[in-house]
UniProtKB/TrEMBL annotation:
InterPro entries: DNA/RNA_pol_sf, RT_dom, RVT-Znf. Residues 632-713 form the Reverse transcriptase zinc-binding domain. It comes from Sesamum radiatum. SUPFAM superfamilies: DNA/RNA polymerases. This is Reverse transcriptase domain-containing protein. Residues 313-379 form the Reverse transcriptase domain. Pfam families: RVT_1, zf-RVT. It comes from the Eukaryota.
Length: 765
């Protein structure tokens, strides 16, 4: 019986600890004579190195941003267009650094602005004078600007792309930034020999040595003679197509490329993001166009623009070795824009050169389609040797017609066949420079080649793998997938949904997260038969309900098997019909139609004859969708599957172009009277009376909306300011009136609905 060894000693920290000690770490020492391993905590060393320049997008919201750019851009720099723009960007770094210092800590600015706003509102509440009202307005504007600057900065650093609308979720951004900062730090690393490095200089040198050996070398590739391939090519680039690739760039083409870059994407070595170029385009646009045009004219790129920032991304949750990190390139925005221009030009001719099935991303296809296709093509009866390169990305680097059709090779277990495979891979590496990663390639041997097993492994130098092979996280198998096969993917989804970062989301933010994750969760059953055809065949009874037959001359419809009668196929409703009438199952419908009249045999069922549909002998038979237009629509299909139910009267109050998710959520809870008031508390509370008016009346939905004097005062202010009229103090009666009064898409009605939601939200908040 094998023993299971697992270290149980852990050290857990909370978010407050990470805020106070962001560089802390711990190591687990050897247990010695104890059954527990001692944990050694380190507070971390402070990094006093000068941080590289990074352009923060919030700088574009400062009032003197364009003025600062204009001052630098007026300088005359001697040199090429690319050198001029690089030098001016370097001068701007000093300006932006000083602006950052003058702006200060954005989070502290928000706290101070909120404190000043609270004090100003307290003064106005006490004295009710115009000077304090103006002070409140001024403080509110300052607070709004401070919050917007902070949110812009947090969104850029957190890089949570799925939060696009709704709440600010600043807590989520803070937690995400702290988690990312801790995850990106490398406290220790193991060498290939097993030595543990904890000194930061040793860790840096280990990374440099590893990737210098991996990426820094050069090789002399043999040129491929393409003459023998010309006969196989279906299309070659014509002179007209070639001229389109090298045509001079236009200003609109350059601007479109820059504005197509995500403003929150990671910057390159120069530190500038696309937000800088978008906002300052009226000033820098002409210089940028000249720099890009200079590259297309000369074919030369300045080394400052061609520089690349290598960033290491962990490939596993707990990286230990240098090989557990993968490098990605962060390029300058100018470099990205030039690449986008080249790509968009090549998009015009690539579909003619590369087969549609070889596209890395087929339009309209999702991951589930690839999984189903792989399940259909997989064969379990593999004899001999199976060589897998599923984890090696090199095979997909080039669009090759003959080689990239599959990602695996099968052969017999003879050494001569194995040698053919290795010679092919060696020849491919000589021509392309793309070598096989032996550490990530596997060989799978069948049970019939156990005698040659060790000899084959030594010859290839690959690791031995086992079935089933995983593709997109799903094992390739000929049998039906079980929940155990999909458990790793399910666990990943559950972990993302239950992440501690998401616990700081508001109701609307959690709703948006669930919708996003739900769109990527899919379930299916794969069997030996075609999954797609089985699903289509199961839909036939449902589709029959939505199809209607319009009878013309009757020559295209079958008398007994088609659904031209409202009772369905006559072979089911009148099974003895062919025998009684003498009309076989293959009889067309036109056999019982003569001169636009039904001519049925005398022994036909009377109920069938009484419900015959009308005919039109001048028209052809048609099969139409059961809708008013006769055409298929998504709405009619949904109503067929799920009949529509009557809407509640307050449905329109939650709709409109100005709706805010968190406001709508609280309004929906208030309409259903599900808020945690004193008559319906979620948790027991010792408080008595309404907290807004300070009275002894219980805080119920009817009292809060709008019998409370505080809420009535809010209504009177809204009526005086924007003519917001709410005539009833009874909550449900007012909802009935508002749902009729403010319905429709009119701008005023939509604004009043949004005002009601905001009022209810802030009264409850």
């Amino acid at each position: 019986m094998r023993s299971l060894w697992k270290r149980l000693d852990r050290m857990l920290v909370n978010t407050a600890w990470l805020d106070a000690w962001p560089n802390s770490s711990y190591i687990c020492a050897l247990p010695s004579t104890s059954d527990h391993s001692p944990l050694i905590l380190s507070g971390g060393n402070r990094n006093d190195e000068l941080a590289p320049f990074r352009f923060d997008n919030y700088l574009t919201h400062l009032p003197d941003f364009l003025h600062s750019v204009e001052d630098i851009w007026k300088h005359r720099i001697a040199g090429t267009a690319m050198y001029e723009i690089v030098h001016k960007l370097k001068l701007l770094k000093t300006v932006f650094r000083s602006q950052k210092m003058m702006t200060g800590n954005l989070t502290e600015n928000v706290t101070k602005a909120k404190s000043f706003l609270d004090k100003a509102q307290a003064l106005f509440t006490t004295y009710k004078e115009d000077i304090f009202l103006n002070l409140v307005k001024c403080c509110r504007r300052v607070f709004s600007v401070a919050v917007n600057l902070e949110i812009t900065m947090l969104k850029q650093r957190a890089k949570m792309r799925w939060i696009k609308h709704g709440d600010q979720n600043s807590k989520v951004f803070f937690r995400k930034i702290n988690a990312t900062r801790v995850k990106q730090r490398v406290f220790q690393i193991k060498t290939a020999g097993g030595n543990l490095l904890t000194d930061q200089q040793d860790v840096k040198q280990e990374f440099i040595s590893y990737f210098h050996h991996l990426l820094g070398g050069s090789s002399q590739n043999r040129r491929l003679n393409l003459e023998f391939l010309r006969a196989e090519l279906k299309h070659t680039v014509t002179t007209t197509e070639a001229s389109l690739l090298v045509a001079p760039v236009t200003q609109s083409e350059v601007k479109e490329a820059f504005f197509d870059i995500d403003i929150e994407s990671a910057p390159g070595p120069d530190g500038y993001t696309a937000a800088f170029y978008r906002t300052a385009w009226p000033v820098v646009g002409q210089a940028v166009f000249q720099a890009v045009g200079e590259f297309f004219r000369t074919g030369k790129l300045l080394k400052q623009i061609n520089a690349t920032l290598i960033v290491l991304i962990p490939k596993v949750n707990l990286p230990i070795y240098v090989s557990d990190y993968r490098p990605i390139s962060c390029c300058n925005v100018l470099y990205k824009a030039i690449t986008k221009i080249l790509v968009k030009r090549m998009q015009r001719i690539l579909p003619l050169l590369i087969d549609y099935s070889q596209n890395a991303f087929v339009p309209g296809r999702s991951i589930i389609d690839n999984v189903l296709l792989a399940q259909e093509l997989w064969l379990v009866t593999i004899k001999g040797v199976f060589l897998s390169a599923a984890h090696s990305k090199w095979i997909f680097k080039k669009p090759m017609t003959r080689l990239s059709g599959t990602f695996c090779w099968r052969s017999s277990a003879q050494l001569s066949s194995i040698k053919v495979l290795t010679d092919t891979l060696t020849e491919f590496a000589t021509l392309s420079g793309l070598k096989v990663n032996q550490a990530k390639s596997q060989i799978i041997l069948s049970s019939s080649v156990q005698q040659e097993r060790q000899q084959i492994l030594e010859f290839l130098g690959f690791q031995e793998g086992s079935l089933p092979i995983r593709y997109l996280g799903i094992p390739l198998t000929s049998s039906r997938l079980t929940i155990a096969d999909c458990r790793p993917l399910i666990d990943k989804v559950d972990a993302r949904l239950a992440a501690w970062i998401n616990q700081n989301l508001s109701y609307a933010g959690r709703l948006q997260l669930i919708k996003l994750r739900q769109s990527t969760i899919w379930t299916f059953n794969s069997a030996t038969g075609s999954w797609g055809w089985k699903k289509l065949l199961k839909l036939r009874p449902l589709l029959r309900r939505g199809v209607t037959y319009k009878i013309g001359d009757g020559s295209s419809f079958n008398l007994w098997q088609d659904i031209w009668h409202e009772q369905g196929p006559l072979c089911l409703t009148f099974p003895q019909g062919p025998r009684v009438t003498g009309l076989p199952l293959t009889t067309p419908l036109s056999s019982v139609l003569q001169h636009n009249q039904w001519c049925w045999p005398a022994l036909t069922d009377a109920e069938i004859v009484a419900q015959l549909p009308p005919t039109d002998p001048t028209a052809a038979d048609m099969i139409c969708w059961n809708s008013s237009s006769g055409k298929y629509t998504l709405k009619s299909a949904v109503s067929l599957i799920q009949p529509s139910t009557p809407r509640v009267f307050w449905f329109g109050l939650l709709q409109g172009k100005f709706k805010i998710p968190r406001h709508g959520f609280v309004l929906w809870m208030a309409i259903l009277e599900k808020l945690s008031t004193m008559d319906k508390p979620w948790v027991p509370s010792a408080e008595n009376g309404c907290v807004l008016c300070g009275g002894h009346i219980d805080e119920t939905h009817e009292h809060l909306f709008f019998k409370c004097w505080y809420s009535k005062r809010c209504l009177s202010i809204l009526k005086r300011k924007i003519r917001f009229h709410w005539p009833f103090s009874e909550w449900q009666r007012g909802l009935t009136w508002a749902s009729k009064k403010w319905r429709g898409n009119h701008l005023v009605n939509a604004a009043f609905r949004a005002t009601l939601a905001a009022l209810v939200y802030h009264l409850w908040d």
